Amino acid sequence: MCFQLAEDAVAPLTQPEIADPRATLRGDLPDRYLTPEDIAEIFEVPKETVYQWRKKRVGPPGFRIGKHVRYDPAEVLAYVAERKNADRDAA
Question: Which residue, among 10, 17, 51, 20, has the nearest Cα to 62 in the 3D structure?
Answer without folding.
Answer: 51
